[in-house]
Amino acid sequence: MDRFVNRLDLQGRGLAPQGRIPTRALVSYVIDYLIIIVLAIIYAVLDKIVTPFSQPFSLNNASLQYPYADPERIPIWLALVISGLFPGIVIAVYTLFLDGLFSHHRRTTRTRTKYTFWDRLWELNCGWLGLLLAQGAAFVITGSLKNLIGKPRPDIIARCKPDPAKVDALAVFTLATKALCTETDEHIMQDGFRSFPSGHSSSSFAGLFYLSLYLAAKLHVLDQRGEVWRTFIVLIPTLAAACVAGSRIMDARHHPFDVLFGSLLGILVAWASYRQYFPPVHHVWEKGRAYPMRTWGTPIRRPVRGKVLVDSETLEVLSDRVPVSGEEDDDSRYEMDFNTNNGAGGPRHTKPEFSNRGNLDLETGYSSQASRRQDTFSSVQVPAPLQPSSTGNNAFREQMEHNQRMRTGGGASTGSPERDADGLEDEPLHRGRA
Q: Whole-angstrom Cα distance, residue 15 to residue 21?
């Protein structure tokens, strides 16, 4: 299988070598911050200015007769500290001081650039952007649903303080409205119809579950090591979010379904925001590092599949992906080694040639099984000792045996990227295999 080396410029992840950020890249990320600011303004309007819809309710509904808890166990300002400020501090401390200390890979001599302070600042920028985006999206979605649905809270009757004279005049099986209430504080009454979904739950999971995803990628909890203490560390923020959500049921500010829906909403926006700036958590060979800096108005860089060999000093990536036909690749080198039976290195092909085959398979470079079989017996160079010289059946058998030996005795690896990375650390990037 063809393999090429793609070196990622660490300076391209943060500041340029001259300490300057390209203008288009700066504009690209300024837009992200502007979007977050706009989300904050929208939520302020939804919370302070927009009047929520008020659903009618039954005075005989026992689920609406809970006492009005004042003060709350976790007020909104404390919830913001727990779900916003605390994750931001943890991300900053880990990125600036701890990132790289939990690598499973040893130091090697094949390092071309170091993980500099500017790279750590770039990681911090992406970590904070994702956190702020998660919080902003959670608040706006939650505030919009609260005002649109207008579901009564479990303590709505205690807030309302119905007028006894109006209650007696109310017909049987007739739902009550705000007109029966004697509460003069308009804010308390409006807030009483904002039960669905729970804002504390959505914001706490948006920030703390985002932190769990961040730590899971940095600590490599999904690798093949299975170190339980890392998993416990990752679950601590999620447990804290669950405790914040549970306090809303204890205070009778939300129904259980409101809390469950808000929690799932927070998890969703946390995952979506994390994936805007970081690769999937299960890609443990990428070390939880943020995507390279994008530049607004330029084509997207081709995705790279492969293995990061070293954590603390290099981001050199080995990839098995073969580019599509006609695609230029100035940053990659293609090499393929074929070995004879006696261990001598065979010919090297600097770049594979492809014909018009339509959509290519990313791992093999073939558009169909027929193309693969055709190239197997016509395009692959067979060593001289195994050159077919007898009947077709014998030649076919010899060719299949040779291919099997190539796969088992030094062919392309089929293991997981992180397993391959461990085995490649102290070996040359390309060598002949016996």
A: 5
